[in-house]
Write a structure and sequence with these properties.
two-stranded antiparallel sheet; 31% strand
Amino acid sequence: MDDVIYKGRTIRAALDAVNDYGRPEVIRLAVLVDRGHRQLPIHPDFTGKKLPTAKEEMVKVYLQDFDGRDGVELIKG
């Protein structure tokens, strides 16, 4: 699970860590926001929202339990 998938490097690091414990039969990836611009061939199995962005823009995800509200904000760069 990831909040925002962008270049794919964070997911790659997580996959490497999982594989250090052994090779799982299946790994599924769920993300809240997919903003594209991948550097690695990693694609989520489940996506809450595809949000095309410019490379200089940022996406901020707010969750009720942590931020007091649910929402997604696109911040212009």
